[in-house]
Each structure stands twice: as C-alpha cells, then as structure tokens.
Design brief:
It contains two helices and two strands, in the order H-E-E-H. By secondary structure, it is of the alpha+beta class.
C-alpha cells in the first residue's frame, strides 16, 4: 500500500513532492536532495522527520490540522 492510497479521492490535496519523477533510475528532485530524503514516504512536520506510512488521523495530529467540521 502506498501513502496516497490512504487518502482516496483527497490524495491530490496532499502537500506532495515526487522525489523520483522519472523513476528510480532517474535524477532526484533538487528539494529531495537538499532535504536528504532517501526513503519514501518521508514527512517533515514541524521540523521532525517521519520515514513511514502514516494514517491520515496521525498526520492530522502531528501537523495540528483541524477539519472545518470538527472544530
């Protein structure tokens, strides 16, 4: 399973950067080189790095996201 699969139709709203746009043998995106990202998915939230698949609820908690309907 990929991280994006957990978000279903909302996956296109993720703050997503493709580190290997041309596949594994192609060049890495400059931001991924700069941030020293070696594994996917890698989340950088509030300065802390998470190198794992995270459930949407966990991501919301870590990032401080509050859905409009849950205030």
């Amino acid at each position: 399973m990929e991280q994006k699969d957990l978000f279903g139709a909302s996956a296109d709203r993720l703050p997503y950067i493709e580190c290997s746009p041309q596949g594994r043998s192609g060049p890495k995106a400059p931001v991924c080189i700069r941030e020293k990202i070696k594994s996917y998915p890698t989340w950088i939230i509030k300065g802390k790095r998470y190198v794992e698949i995270l459930e949407p609820d966990r991501l919301a908690t870590l990032s401080g996201y509050v859905h409009e309907g849950t205030k």
